[in-house]
Amino acid sequence: MIKSFQIIALLIGFGVSAQGSLDTVLSKFNKETIPYISAEELKMMQDITDFLLLDTRERKEFEVSKIEGAVYAGYNQFSINQFANFATDKTRPIVVYCSLGIRSEDIGEKLKKAGYTNVKNLYGGIFEWKNNGFSVVDSDGNETEKVHAFSKQWSKWLLKGEKIY
């Protein structure tokens, strides 16, 4: 018979505790008003769907690296009016992301309030994307290992790649 401490040890060995901790962090800061999409689902979607991928981090983060095909939206300077001039089809699928998925939920809520009907938030953000072994590109479009880690506090969630501050 397996005892509870053995189950916990098994889960830790398979990385479930880290995922559980990320769940805890996101549930502390997010209201889940924008449905999540996983890194794996987004990777599959890249090949088959015409969608808009919005990077809601700040410019200095975006310039270090981004998910290929992402468009800079920003966070502090985000303007729904400017965005509406750029994206007129309010039914087109949109995926928002930031470092972990916290700031992107805020932008997703603004999009939803403005009438965009198909908005998803990348669970775990660019950190989870990179942690899953998916590539990011620099401002010239070249693959890179560098990811802006936002801050020392939040950087613990970036497990793969080179942390840039």
Task: Describe the fold and architecture.
The protein is 42% helix and 16% strand. It has helices at 4-13, 16-29, 39-48, 59-64, 80-86, 103-113, 125-131, 152-155, and strands at 36-37, 52-55, 71-72, 94-97, 119-122, 136-137, 143-144, 146-148, 162-164. The chain has 165 residues and is an alpha/beta fold. It is built from 8 helices and 9 strands. It has 2 domains: 1-30, no CATH class; 32-164, Rhodanese-like domain (Oxidized Rhodanese, domain 1). It is globular, with a radius of gyration of 17 Å. The protein has a 5-stranded parallel beta sheet with strand order 1-5-4-2-3.
Q: What secondary-structure arrangement, pairings included, does this model have?
A:
Blueprint: H1 4-13, H2 16-29, E1 36-37, H3 39-48, E2 52-55, H4 59-64, E3 71-72, H5 80-86, E4 94-97, H6 103-113, E5 119-122, H7 125-131, E6 136-137, E7 143-144, E8 146-148, H8 152-155, E9 162-164
Parallel strand pairs: 1-5, 2-3, 2-4, 4-5, 8-9
Antiparallel strand pairs: 6-7
If you average the pLDDT, what whole number results?
89
Which class do the helix and strand fractions yield? alpha/beta
Number of domains: 2
Largest beta sheet: strand ordering:
1-5-4-2-3
Sheet of most strands? 5 strands, parallel
CATH topology of the largest domain: Oxidized Rhodanese, domain 1
Looking at the overall shape, the CATH architecture of the largest domain is 3-Layer(aba) Sandwich
Write the element-wise H/E pattern from the N-terminal end onward: HHEHEHEHEHEHEEEHE
Cα-to-Cα separation, first versus last residue:
47 Å
Shape: globular
The number of E-state strands comes to 9
